[in-house]
């Protein structure tokens, strides 16, 4: 660990942990969506919307703290990147749930549950990793596993696209379902962006 002569603002660590915990809440709502019938989805979407707003508040708090802090625990651009990528995850998850409701999707294609399971696991790993930014320890396995999960998400996404274009669905339904699975894939990409930023921070601080 690099030796520092000046104190550091430590509230960022708690803010990142809170943001990641909120993402776990979002991933659980995605899981809940899978087993819900159409009548229950609007209420789940409303709770997801509230979680997304909470994520926005957490991100704005980090940006405010960043703008008002003379000393930061690590590089400012990395703080901004990490907060933005965490916010992106919630945005994509909320968008996916909202699209399911808006498009009145009766049945999600087989394989979407695998996408969501990957996101839920990535959310757990991210929430477990954020407190370790304080000490920069036990992070290597985190970013390796999230990168592995993102590769798995890519494979699931490709299989879903192949399924959507196999002629089983009509053209309008394909457009609706493709947008949903694409947004879930973007959420997986955003988890990887978070992990890559954490790796960058850890390398700089080593």
From TrEMBL:
Origin: domain of life: Bacteria
Pfam families (alphabetical): PhoU_div
Family (UniProt): Belongs to the UPF0111 family.
Protein name in UniProt: Phosphate transport regulator
Species name: Streptomyces longwoodensis
Origin organism lineage: Bacteria, Bacillati, Actinomycetota, Actinomycetes, Kitasatosporales
């Amino acid at each position: 660990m690099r030796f520092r002569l000046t104190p550091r603002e430590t509230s960022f660590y708690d803010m990142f942990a809170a943001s990641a915990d909120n993402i776990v809440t979002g991933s659980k709502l995605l899981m809940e969506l899978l087993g819900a019938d159409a009548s229950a989805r609007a209420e789940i979407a409303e709770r997801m919307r509230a979680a997304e707003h909470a994520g926005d508040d957490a991100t704005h708090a980090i940006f405010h703290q960043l703008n008002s802090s003379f000393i930061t625990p690590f590089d400012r651009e990395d703080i901004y990147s990490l907060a933005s990528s965490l916010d992106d995850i919630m945005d994509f998850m909320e968008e996916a749930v909202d699209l399911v409701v808006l498009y009145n999707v009766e049945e999600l294609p087989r394989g979407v549950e695998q996408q969501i399971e990957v996101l839920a696991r990535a959310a757990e790993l991210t929430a477990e990793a954020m407190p370790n930014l304080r000490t920069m320890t036990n992070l290597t396995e985190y970013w390796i596993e999230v990168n592995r999960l993102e590769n798995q998400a890519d494979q699931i996404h490709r299989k879903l696209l192949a399924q959507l274009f196999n002629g089983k669905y009509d053209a309008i339904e394909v457009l609706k379902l493709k947008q949903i699975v694409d947004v879930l894939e973007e959420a997986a990409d955003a988890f990887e962006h978070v992990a890559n930023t954490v790796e960058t921070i850890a390398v700089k601080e080593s």
